[in-house]
Amino acid sequence: MLDFIIRLFVYLGCFVLSMYGLSSVNYEKFIRNGKVKQAQVLYLLVAMGIAKLAAEFLMNIAYKVIP
């Protein structure tokens, strides 16, 4: 149960950090007129993908170093 809670917080933390990092990118010049909803969905999917990769990387390091 503790392992699940730790993983959850690591994933959520990485998601927040990836959203924060992506907010610095000016993606408005890549959006077509009238396609704002699709751009927001893409933004969330990219943030989730980055968060998953970062969280798995951190957890792999943590579990390999500390068995």
Protein model, in words:
The chain is an all-alpha fold and 67 residues long. The chain has one domain (2-65). Helices cover 76% and strands 0% of the residues. The chain has two helices and no strands. Helix 1 packs across helix 2. The two termini are 17 Å apart. 7% of the residues are buried.
Concise synopsis of the structure shown:
The chain has two helices and no strands. It has 67 residues and is an all-alpha fold. The protein has one domain (2-65).
Please outline the helices and strands.
Elements: H1 2-22, H2 36-65
Helix pairs in contact: 1-2
Strand content: under 5%
Number of helices: 2
Number of strands: 0
Most strands sheet: none
Low-confidence stretches: none
Structural class: mainly alpha
**Can you give the mean pLDDT?**
91
Radius of gyration: 15 Å
- Helix percent reads over 70%
Q: How many discrete structural domains? A: 1
Shape: elongated
Instruction: Name the helix and strand elements from N-terminus to C-terminus, one letter apiece.
Output: HH
How far do the termini sit from each other?
A: 17 Å
InterPro entries: DUF1146 (IPR009526)
Transmembrane segments: 6-22, 42-63
Protein name: DUF1146 domain-containing protein
Pfam families: DUF1146
Key traits:
about 70 residues; 2 helices; mainly alpha; single chain
